[in-house]
Protein 1
Amino acid sequence: MTAPSESHWFKSSYSGGSGTECLECAYAHDSTLIRDSKRADGPLVRVRSGAWRTFVQALARDALK
């Protein structure tokens, strides 16, 4: 799967500065795209928007514990 050319990729603010262990995300029309930042032309994972939102909300709730 390839990313749409207009995708704007971003890294988490929690990413380390060494660049050795980072994922990048981009929002698409109805999904979120995820890739390894070290392999920008490598494979992508596409997650539907609702599933991504649920995942991020669960992470946020867990962080508050």
Protein 2
Amino acid sequence: MSNINQQIEQEREQARNTCAIEGETSPECAAGWDVVEELQAEAAHQRQVKPKTSLERYCDDNPGADECRLYEE
């Protein structure tokens, strides 16, 4: 997770520099901030994904096991 946070900081700094050089209303400035926004969305998505339990991992590896059977009502 820290890798994506580092990347966000790098892209944020690059967006600031681009906006300072090209101007706040330039397409390059907007594109730079779009990249930052996409990375932030990905970081939020990664925080929402729950890790699998040991039973879920076992069933992924052994779908035919009795413990992994699903019964429909």
